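Protein modeling request. Please complete all fields; requests missing the sequence field cannot be processed.
Requester role: graduate student
Desired output: 3D structure, token encoding
Chains: 1
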Amino acid sequence: VIDALNMDSMMREIYNWKKDPKSYLISHGLKQSAHSKEANGVQNEVYVLITEGFLLYNYKPLNELFDLRYFLNIPYDVCKKRRCARVYIPPDPPGYFDGHVWPMYIKHRKEMEDTVSELVYLDGTKTIHELFSTVYENIMVQIQKRTGKF
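Delivered output (150 residues):
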């Protein structure tokens, strides 16, 4: 189990969402009412839950809940540049990226690659718009397949 995350709580939240996404959203103040869309003539809504964090794939019970899995692949030099540009409080100590961050990334990525199937690798050097478009199109194809509108 990944120590930095409360996996039991995360699993419970995801199960509750999957059981009844509409009620889940309403109970969390993210949707106005169960009848608002039906009143406007919208039916058969499709709900998409996106979770973020590549370490989530290393927790098998959670990983089994995912329909699609994406991994942003990024080279060492780009990752280090981005990490160094971020502001952390407290700041990373000198050598922290090379001594801890990158080695742990490599370790957990290997574990993930050894155990996770159907992983889609995305080029993390592309723009946010390009990445969003790729994932959005893929999700839309999956929705169309599941709803028989493909």
